[in-house]
Design goal:
This protein is an alpha/beta fold and 273 residues long. The protein has one domain: Ribokinase (UDP-N-acetylmuramoyl-L-alanine:D-glutamate ligase), CATH 3.40.1190.20. 34% of the residues lie in helices and 22% in strands. It has a 10-stranded mixed beta sheet with strand order 3-2-1-4-5-8-9-10-11-12, sandwiched between helices. Helix 1 packs across helix 7, helix 3 packs parallel to helix 4 and helix 7 packs antiparallel against helix 8. The longest helix has 15 residues. The chain is globular, with a radius of gyration of 17 Å. The chain starts with a strand and ends with a strand.
Length: 273
Amino acid sequence: MARILALSSWVAHGHVGLSAAVPALQALGHEVTPLPMTILSNHPGWPHVAGAPLPCDQLGAMIEALDRNGWLAGVEAVLTGYMPTPDHVDLAAALIRRLCRSRPVPRVIVDPVLGDLPKGLYVPVAVAEAVRDRLVPLADTLTPNAFELGWLTGEAVGTLEAVQVAAAGLFPSAPAQTVLVTSAPAPEGWIGTLSVSRHAALSWATPRRDGVPNGVGDVLSGLIAAGLPAGAALGHLSTLIEASLGAPHLRIVESASDWTRAAPLHPQSLPEI
């Protein structure tokens, strides 16, 4: 099982950010060290929310303590998600570069949490630019949604072919080996996921569901950080979504006996571009 260091948001109630990825990974037997960039009472979509980012000097001290205790040795994957300020992006980037000087070199999974349609960006432009310029170039795997891919590349992403072109366009400017794009275009009533690497492009389509709780993308990026192939991760996620429809939060623990045993989803190969 994988040893994963995860940097993102943490909520006291509900399942988004680290509070989604960590229990899902633990249910599959992975070892996770979560570093919360910000701590909130709950997802900001609820009527009341409180909390604040953790100061970077405090996070830096936590990193040093983890290192001195030997708990950063042997980390196999680093996952980054929500970043509240450019300084937090810098801290995450510096930590990744530090860990990549060790052996084994960890895989780096960047979930560029910037925004979504129809609202657009929900982080400050300075944060989005910092993620684009300082985290994306460090990634082995990126997990943007279609809006985030369009923002990162400046390209149109209205069709599956356009998403494929935009994702492939990240390769010359970043060493990303794979771009896994969620909320990709799909036939009506379906939602698409597209995986683009230097050598292949694969797509999946799953039924669009109403009443899906927040945190689905956080679980998916966590499963990818654990080293699961995209089809296997999507199989787990699809079953978890079905078990959580209409619930206020993802039923990660309550339905673990079902979603942890789910079969992979089979992809469709796309032509080379």
